[in-house]
Amino acid sequence: MRTRILDLPVQTATHAHPEHQLVIGLRGCADFEVQGQGGAVNRLHACVVPGGEAHAFSGRGHNHMLIMDLPSAAAGALGGNDAERLFERPRFVQLDHQLQGLLDFAQYAVATPQAEQDGLNWHLGGVLLAALQRRLGVDAGAQRARGALSSEELQRLETYVLANLDRPLSVASLAAQVCVSSSHFHALYRQATGMTPHQHVLALRVREAAHLLRDSALPVAEVASRCGFSSQSALTHALRRQLGQTPRALRIGG
Questions:
Q1: Of 35, 44, 86, 112, which residue is most buried, by most CB within 10 angstroms?
Q2: CA angle, 53 as apex, 151 and 204 as ends, to 5°?
Q3: Is residue 53 pLDDT above 60, yes or no?
Q4: Is the Cβ–Cβ distance between 6 and 72 less than 8 Å?
Q5: By the 8 A CB rule, do 5 and 30 touch?
Q6: How far does Cα 242 stand from its chain's mean position?
Q7: CA-to-CA distance for 209 and 220, rounded, in angstroms?
Q8: Are 250 and 210 in contact, with CB atoms under 8 Å apart?
Q9: Closest Cα partner for 17 from 64, 65, 71, 82?
Q10: Are the C-beta atoms of 88 and 66 separated by less than 8 Å?
Q11: How far apart are CA 85 and CA 79, in angstroms?
């Protein structure tokens, strides 16, 4: 584990690295965005960046950020399953006041010339990581392990799908809305809804298409395009399969 203090530049930068990263604000503030999730990092808020995830960041003027890099392969060895769950997805963590004394010590200790040579940085990083794991109880990770998506997350997903019906929607893009990996998301979504992500997206496309056919005068081809179907015949096939009706029947019956 490598622990250091950096002053992040005001200009926005984007990069990715194989190591897990934990960023805590010691002084000032910085903005981070990971997988479409953005937030501020300061004395009361930390950012968890899983290894390999591209992230954008910028400082708000003068700042000191405590940054810990943890090789992905070492997470389990250092912190066990709790550490692995902590870094399974990007997250912004609210820190309690009990951690402030530890952060004050970290700011002093890491800045000393002998810190790296004496191994203090490594030990300090381990203490901070353990304190965060205890603070969190790794609640979100445990919830994920049980296969749970919250009602708020499911609503966020539906809102996202409805706002993007006219474009392809991949599992990766959906998973990014709740900050989990694509492979994990597929299982979580099926457990929460009884459907695969593809099945639910298709159901929402059909629902919106039926609404437009009943309540608007848009050409069928335009309805198909707005709802993400590749063609009018693809829309017709989906309507017949899911609703047992054709576009014409829906329009007349509407």
A1: 86
A2: 35
A3: yes
A4: no
A5: no
A6: 32
A7: 9
A8: yes
A9: 71
A10: no
A11: 10
β pairing state of 55-59 and 13-15: antiparallel
Q: Using the predicted structure, report yes or no on whether residue 252 has a pLDDT greater than 50.
A: yes
Instruction: Using pLDDT thresholds of 50, 70 and 90, give the confidence band for residue 43.
Output: confident
pTM: predicted TM-score of the whole model, two decimal places: 0.49
Q: How far is CA 138 from the centre of its chain?
A: 16
Rounded Cα distance, 157 and 126, in Å: 36
237, two tokens: 């096939």
Tokens standing for 252? 């007349």
- Tens digit of pLDDT for each residue in 74-86? 655 555 555 677 7
Cα-to-chain-centroid distance, residue 28: 24
Report whether 239 contacts 211 (CB < 8 A).
no
Which alpha helices (DSSP H) does the chain contain, by range?
Answer: 72-86, 100-110, 115-118, 120-136, 139-145, 151-163, 171-177, 182-193, 197-215, 220-226, 232-243, 247-253
Strand order across the 37-41 sheet: 13-15, 55-59, 30-34, 37-41
Amino acid identity at 67: I
